[in-house]
Design goal:
InterPro entries: Flavodoxin/NO_synth (IPR008254), Flavoprotein-like_sf (IPR029039), Flavoprotein_WrbA-like (IPR010089), FMN_Rdtase-like_dom (IPR005025). This is NAD(P)H:quinone oxidoreductase. Keywords: Flavoprotein, FMN, Oxidoreductase. The chain is α/β, with parallel strands linked by helices. It has one domain: Flavodoxin domain (Rossmann fold), CATH 3.40.50. The protein is built from 7 helices and 6 strands. The longest helix is centred in the last third of the chain and has 21 residues. The protein is globular. The relative contact order is 0.20.
């Protein structure tokens, strides 16, 4: 059984909804899931530690887009992980990324690439969404080859579409499958 860390920051609930879809899918497949945030915004939030990173067998990492970049809360955390990097403690662990923006061209793909940078520096095995996921070809909202995405709307009121949910589930399934193979 693999332990998967689902690590996210959510300002208005969209990224949290994606994280929950990913976590529920992982749980249903038998993974041990650690759902963590960067800061405690809600009473149920558990703040990530470097030990959570070290102990995980795979990572799903998401934040809202901030002008094509990760949220500052996430960046602040990754900047504290040099000691983990020096010891190579994340090398060869599989990872995927996910994001949400308020508009269709709001920077989701750039954010996914930005989220990927610290993971690549840590030597993680980065996974995207392959084109055998049919929703990737038919989406009219979120979803990219780089990772799962959501378009929340300018007022952040849009719920995850069924297509976005299916892409989140496909990403979670792939992450768990690869994590088990690498154990």
């Amino acid at each position: 059984m693999a332990t998967i860390l689902v690590l996210y920051h959510s300002s208005h609930g969209s990224v949290e909804a994606m994280a929950n879809e990913i976590a529920e899918t992982l749980n249903a497949q038998g993974a041990t899931v650690r759902l963590r945030t960067f800061v405690q915004r809600q009473p149920h939030d558990i703040v990530v530690t470097k030990q959570d990173l070290i102990e995980c067998d795979g990572l799903a990492f998401g934040t809202p887009t901030r002008f094509g970049m990760m949220a500052a809360q996430a960046k602040t955390f990754w900047e504290t992980t040099s000691d983990v990097w020096l010891k190579g403690q994340l090398i060869d662990k599989p990872a995927c990324v996910f994001s949400s923006s308020s508009s269709m061209h709001g920077g989701n793909e750039a954010t996914l690439l930005n989220l990927s940078l610290p993971l690549l520096h840590h030597g993680m095995v980065l996974m995207g969404v392959p084109y055998d996921v049919p929703e990737l070809l038919s989406t009219e909202s979120g979803g990219t080859p780089y990772g799962a995405t959501h378009v929340a709307g300018l007022d952040n009121s849009a719920q995850l579409t069924e297509t976005e949910v299916r892409i989140c589930r496909a990403v979670a399934t792939r992450l768990y499958t690869v994590a088990k193979k690498l154990l």
